[in-house]
Write a structure and sequence with these properties.
This protein has five helices and nine strands, in the order βββααβαβαββββα. It is α+β, with helices and mostly antiparallel strands. The chain has one domain: 3-Layer(aba) Sandwich (Glutaredoxin), CATH 3.40.30.10. Its EC number is 1.11.1.24.
Length: 151
């Protein structure tokens, strides 16, 4: 069942691209953009992650932490992050347990879904954008929503 706006974001702990354990609770008190994407270094996921990278300073200026999640290994995340100079956290959800917790499941029953969540400083989901093919829309729509909530 998908997490909905107004619900508490499910807690999780995963390893980042450097092998360090990262928990959602580590970010309490901050706004988080948590985006699930299918696979490192594929055309759509690269476009999406690079779009987040290109707007990273805007997110940072708004006090927002970016976190990308896929089922790829920490090593794959490290290489992907280095190759495209991604300045934010990438988490390895091997087995898709966190994806399942959030309901960011498969697209067409074949591919892991592409879903972005804005989680407020209290840990409540305040926005969800779900689109498999609107890669840059994840960034554009999320930025619009952050600007609306902060004004």
């Amino acid at each position: 069942m998908a997490v909905k706006i107004g619900e508490k974001a499910p807690e999780f702990t995963l390893r980042n691209q450097h092998g360090k354990l990262v928990s959602l609770k580590d970010f309490l008190g901050k706004t988080i953009v948590l985006y699930f994407y299918p696979k490192d270094d594929t055309p759509g996921c690269t476009a999406e992650s690079c779009a987040f990278r290109d707007e990273y300073q805007v997110f940072q200026s708004a006090g927002v932490e970016l976190i990308g999640v896929s089922g790829d290994s920490t090593r794959s995340h490290l290489e992907f992050g280095r190759k495209y100079q991604l300045p934010f956290t990438l988490l390895s959800d091997n087995g898709g347990k966190v994806r399942q917790l959030y309901g960011a499941m498969t697209a067409f029953g074949l591919f892991p879904g592409r879903v972005t969540y804005i989680i407020n400083p209290e840990g409540i989901v305040q926005y969800v954008f779900d689109s498999m093919f609107n890669f840059k829309g994840h960034v554009e729509e999320t930025l619009k929503q952050i600007q609306v909530t902060q004004s």
